[in-house]
Design brief:
This protein is of the alpha+beta class. It contains eleven helices and 20 strands. The strands form five sheets. Strands 2-1-7-6-4-9 form a six-stranded antiparallel beta sheet, with no helix packed on it.
């Protein structure tokens, strides 16, 4: 294919901090197709050898204008936007949303000047060599000369190529250039970069070089390993347990929470002597009427719901444009099962009696253990309670906020302590419960979180007020 005159203006890469980098132009050809422009994956840094397409903001067939964003590109360092500098039409998307490990220079899309030319690129597929050729081509000048014959092009390139003599150096005497992904992979597997020959631009070591080295090293080890059994090191005995879907979802949400939500934690001790006394009286009534027993956790859920009604700022979620404050108080309750962690929801917990809350919690926990929860059983919560004290005896812990919520209460175990009495030589025993509130600082300021804990502690230490 002979190289022709470049079509259209350059594309501009702009990251979210405002910096820009010009990508390489595509070219038209004499393959029978109308004039078009091949958009290649640009090189955004000296170490970049490949990138990912996060998403296309333009669709095939759409008109593109100067300054409009075509797509978002993920590199090993940042996410950048690809902008177009002049008008045309997006004829064909070669690499769609989510395409990964696209080599620099590899064609990702085709643009044309005339809308009627779009159907001619329906089945267009660039050749495998197009990407590498695009990556090595120098930027076109403003007034490119007419294309010479193929042989002349080769002779001109070979005769004009600058000859640079470089002193021979050993790996230990010169700096080793490698991409961040390659360095990280080498560190994880204790691979010396000095023993690897890079295949990237200017001899840079890239990810595939490390992978090839690890693959060859594995073959060498297996080929040279002695047949006799090594008695000095016992082989590890293990079982690989496949990820359940609930565990995958939980892992993804918790990772997102810790990486994107600014957590802070507030801990307070509450005396639960009066709470235990009220619970004993209520359970006596429950047993007489055939109802289910009320647990400390049921009382904690009720106290948390009433505290959210008193301090509604904690019953909120963060969005990019506003803070959404909920009028409903729906409490998610963490339940551990053999399949993973579930958080069924008790809706309108502030308006329900303790007996109703106890029945719902037991019913939802049973459904969670049977893996029979429906979406309406766990969606729509505004706050979460996680209790590791009652069932496991954990004294105190910090829980991870369950997005999009802004708070979660971690409940520890109650323990008896010696406290001063009314006289100088008097003392008495009292039971205290440690609770820790994890907050999203974007929504709940420290003083607001402390105000909520104060309200919660008031309900726990004066439980009769929850019945009013």
């Amino acid at each position: 294919m002979q190289v022709g005159i470049p079509l259209g203006g350059p594309l501009v890469m702009k990251d979210f901090s405002g910096s820009q980098a010009e990508s390489r132009r595509g070219y038209s050809s004499d393959s029978g197709l109308p004039p078009h422009q091949e958009i290649g994956m640009p090189s955004l840094s000296p170490t970049m050898t490949e990138g990912n397409i996060a998403r296309w903001l333009k669709k095939e067939g759409e008109k593109i204008s100067p300054g409009e964003v075509l797509c978002e590109v993920e590199t090993d360092k940042a996410t950048v936007e690809m902008e177009c500098m002049e008008e045309g039409f997006l004829a064909k998307i070669i690499k769609g949303d989510g395409s990964k490990e696209i080599k620099v220079g590899e064609v990702i899309a085709i643009t044309v000047e005339d809308e009627e030319d779009i159907p001619m690129f329906k089945d267009y597929s660039p050749s495998a060599s197009d990407g590498a050729a695009a990556a090595k081509e120098p930027p076109a000048s403003k007034s490119p000369p007419p294309p010479p014959p193929k042989k002349e092009v080769e002779e001109t390139v070979s005769s004009q190529e600058p000859k640079i003599s470089r002193p021979s150096t050993t790996p230990s005497e010169s700096r080793i250039f490698a991409s961040p992904l390659a360095r990280r992979l080498a560190e994880d597997h204790s691979v010396p970069l000095s023993s690897i020959k890079g295949t990237g631009p200017d001899g840079h070591i890239v990810k595939v070089d490390i992978e090839d080295y690890l693959a060859s090293r594995g073959k060498e080890v297996s080929a040279t390993a002695p047949k006799a059994k090594d008695t000095t090191a016992a082989a590890l005995d293990y079982v690989d347990i496949p990820h359940s879907q609930i565990r995958k979802v939980t892992a993804s949400r918790l990772l997102f929470s810790k990486q994107t939500i600014p957590h802070y934690y507030l801990t307070v001790d509450t005396c639960v002597d009066k709470l235990e006394g009220l619970r004993s009286k209520l359970n006596s009534l429950q047993e007489a009427s055939g109802g289910k027993r009320i647990s400390v956790n049921d009382l904690v859920i009720k106290a948390a719901a009433l505290a959210l009604r008193k301090v509604p700022q904690c019953n909120s979620s963060w969005t990019d444009n506003y803070i959404r404050q909920y009028n409903n108080v729906n409490i998610n309750v963490a339940v551990q099962t053999d399949n993973g962690l579930y958080v069924p929801v008790v809706r309108e917990a502030d308006k329900k009696g303790l007996s109703t809350i106890a029945d719902e919690v037991k019913h939802l926990a049973q459904k969670a253990r049977e893996n029979s929860l429906k979406p309406e059983d766990y969606e729509g919560g505004t706050f979460t309670v996680s209790n590791l004290g009652g069932p496991f005896g954990i004294k105190q812990f910090c829980a991870i906020v369950n997005p999009p919520q802004s708070g979660i209460l971690a409940v520890g175990s109650a323990e008896k302590r010696v406290v001063p009495g009314s006289g100088s030589d008097e003392f008495k025993f009292a039971s205290f419960l440690s609770v820790t509130l994890s907050c999203d600082h974007r929504v709940i300021d420290g003083a607001i979180g402390a105000e909520w804990l104060k309200a919660f502690k008031g309900y726990i230490e004066n439980p009769e007020s929850m019945l009013l």
